[in-house]
């Protein structure tokens, strides 16, 4: 009930988000109709939605050539991740399973009921279906998936017995194995259909940054969940500057140190943004652009929610559903992406605590992002929504006042000399003239070509 009330209030306060949510729902219905009727593929997409709705949404919008390979790629890596996370098995045994997981992709009929829980357990129980779908992919896609699965499994095995990242370098390496390699594999798949800049396959640091930015955002946001499950991904080199134990950040008495550590980690994540923007600018296929851009804008929005926010240490911080829908609907071209990153970078910069020990580094990282985006941010504001609301109010108030004039004809009211006008009539007249002033002053700006901070409008 509380969530329903919250959603209702959100729509009242942010009516434009309701339109975005409805549009997004309509898009998902169209996606579902475009899926293959083959029962094996139906299973894959069903479980893709069960294990990750956010990635399912962007994967299902891809063209058919890429959609199936990337769906299988994600499910295979999810299966590997489930094995790695199964702490009921000894670290030594898990390390062997992770290293050899790529081999099961060539073993028709392979499945297991030993690992995971919920949807992940069901996925591995029916993994032979995923393997069948993998076998039906074109050989170039199979080669990429096997290679990335092998490299990721070996990397995961390296960190199974470690239990933590001690240095920032180890933190970067861990994120490379679990997320950077995903970006590298996806880039190689995109290159097969010429959907990205062909030089990106040799610029693995760009693909790696795409993965690291997403993974670090998740690690920052999921502090409480990971601590309660015995996982410690925050690097010791950073957190030990603010506490003797990582668990101490849950104590409200340590909130100052906790938020300073949080801000430090957000600053570290922000250094990957310039590479991410460069990568996004090189995506040539519109559907691939949407696929890679949506997670990135959600990451910067999530970091903005997390920055200097003590709620990270007591609950899971999320971007409001309506905001998510708006970001998804707007992530259609590079100009919009620059504007989104600019807005969130400015939002974080405006909230930097002066006493924060990393304030100058945070400001420098954000200034770099802002400078990269500045050329694509219009000087004139977007008044589309305000103009629509004003026209609606003009129509409603006009109808009301005309009705009141007709209703009170011949009486001593606000429309004739003498008499005492009713308060609602006075408010309606004031509101009507306020709307008229707005329309006369600002309405025409929507027909003026937006001016930018420079002539570069890639």
UniProtKB/TrEMBL annotation:
TM stretches of this protein: 385-402, 423-448
GO cellular component: endoplasmic reticulum membrane
Cofactor section: Mg(2+)
Alphabetized UniProt keyword annotations: Lipid biosynthesis, Lipid metabolism, Membrane, Transferase, Transmembrane, Transmembrane helix
Location in or out of the cell: Membrane
Enzyme class per UniProt: transferase
Signal peptide (UniProt feature, chain positions): none
One Pfam family matching this protein: SQS_PSY
Record carries keyword Transmembrane helix: yes
GO molecular function: squalene synthase [NAD(P)H] activity
One of the GO biological process terms: farnesyl diphosphate metabolic process
Family designation: Belongs to the phytoene/squalene synthase family.
PANTHER family: FARNESYL-DIPHOSPHATE FARNESYLTRANSFERASE, SQUALENE SYNTHASE
Record protein name field: squalene synthase
């Amino acid at each position: 009930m509380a969530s329903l009330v919250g959603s209702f209030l959100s729509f009242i306060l942010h009516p434009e988000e309701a339109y975005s949510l409805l549009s997004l729902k309509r898009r998902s219905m169209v996606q579902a109709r475009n899926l293959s009727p083959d029962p094996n593929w139906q299973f894959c997409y069903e479980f893709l939605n069960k294990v990750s709705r956010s990635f399912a949404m962007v994967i299902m919008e891809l063209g058919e050539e890429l959609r199936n390979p990337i769906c299988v790629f994600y499910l295979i890596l999810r299966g590997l991740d489930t094995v790695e996370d199964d702490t009921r098995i000894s670290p030594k045994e898990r390390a062997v399973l992770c290293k050899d997981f790529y081999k099961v992709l060539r073993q028709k009929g392979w499945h297991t009921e030993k690992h995971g829980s919920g949807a992940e357990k069901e996925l591995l129980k029916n993994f032979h279906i995923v393997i069948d779908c993998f076998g039906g992919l074109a050989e170039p896609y199979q080669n990429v998936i096997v290679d990335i699965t092998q490299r990721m499994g070996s990397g995961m095995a390296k960190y199974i017995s470690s239990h933590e990242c001690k240095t920032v370098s180890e933190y970067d390496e861990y994120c490379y194995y679990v997320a950077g390699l995903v970006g590298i594999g996806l880039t190689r798949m995109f290159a097969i259909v010429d959907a990205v800049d062909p030089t990106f396959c040799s610029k693995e640091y760009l693909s790696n940054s795409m993965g690291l930015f997403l993974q670090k955002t998740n690690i920052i946001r999921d502090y409480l969940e990971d601590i309660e499950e015995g996982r410690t991904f925050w690097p010791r080199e950073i957190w030990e500057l603010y506490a003797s134990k990582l668990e101490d950040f849950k104590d409200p008495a340590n909130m100052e140190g906790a938020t300073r550590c949080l801000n430090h980690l957000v600053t570290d994540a922000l250094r990957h943004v310039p590479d991410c923007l460069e990568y996004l600018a090189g995506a040539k296929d519109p559907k691939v652009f949407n696929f890679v851009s949506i997670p990135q804008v959600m990451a910067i929005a999530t970091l903005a929610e997390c920055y200097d926010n003590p709620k990270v240490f007591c609950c899971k911080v999320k971007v409001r559903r309506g905001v998510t829908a708006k970001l998804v609907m707007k992530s259609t071209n590079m100009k919009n992406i620059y504007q989104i990153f600019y807005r969130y970078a400015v939002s974080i910069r405006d909230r930097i605590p002066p006493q924060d020990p990393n304030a100058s580094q945070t400001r420098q990282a954000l200034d770099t992002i802002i400078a990269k985006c500045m050329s694509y941010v219009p000087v004139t504001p977007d008044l589309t929504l305000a103009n629509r609301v004003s026209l609606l109010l003009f129509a409603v108030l006009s109808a009301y006042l005309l009705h009141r004039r007709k209703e009170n004809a011949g009486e001593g009211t606000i429309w004739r000399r003498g008499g005492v006008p009713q308060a609602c009539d006075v408010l309606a007249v004031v509101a009507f003239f306020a709307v008229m002033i707005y329309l006369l002053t600002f309405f025409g700006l929507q027909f003026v070509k937006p001016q930018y901070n420079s002539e570069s409008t890639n």
